[in-house]
Specification:
Layout lengths: L1 H16 L15 H4 L4 H29 L2 H23 L11
Helix pairs in contact: 1-3, 3-4
Length: about 100
């Protein structure tokens, strides 16, 4: 199960960053065009890619350790820990003022 979730996160990270599917970033596609120009969307897409890859890596490590130790609970813990760490990081990093190009507004 965690392999499928990790694969989905990797695909989402690739599509957001390299496929330029910025509509996957919540709130960006609903912004007026003038407001969209105020943000470094490539930087935000990089944060999304890194967060998705990081969460996928934690899940893959959890899967490997669970198979190695023959303990399936570790796989579940890895999924929850990766989401508990990854989602707040994603929200905090992408909403920081670092990616706003017009900082006076």
């Amino acid at each position: 199960m965690s392999l499928a979730i990790a694969a989905i996160f990797i695909i989402l990270g690739i599509l957001t960053k390299y496929g330029k599917l910025y509509f996957l970033i919540a709130g960006y596609n609903t912004m007026p065009k003038e407001d969209q120009k105020k943000y470094d969307i490539k930087g935000i897409a990089t944060v999304f890619r890194n967060a998705m890859f990081g969460m996928a890596l934690l899940m893959l490590l959890g899967f490997g350790v669970s198979k190695w130790l023959n303990n399936p609970e570790i796989e579940s813990y890895a999924v929850f820990v990766s989401i508990i760490i990854g989602v707040p990081y994603l929200l905090i990093a992408s909403n920081s003022g670092k990616y706003k190009m017009d900082k006076d507004s």
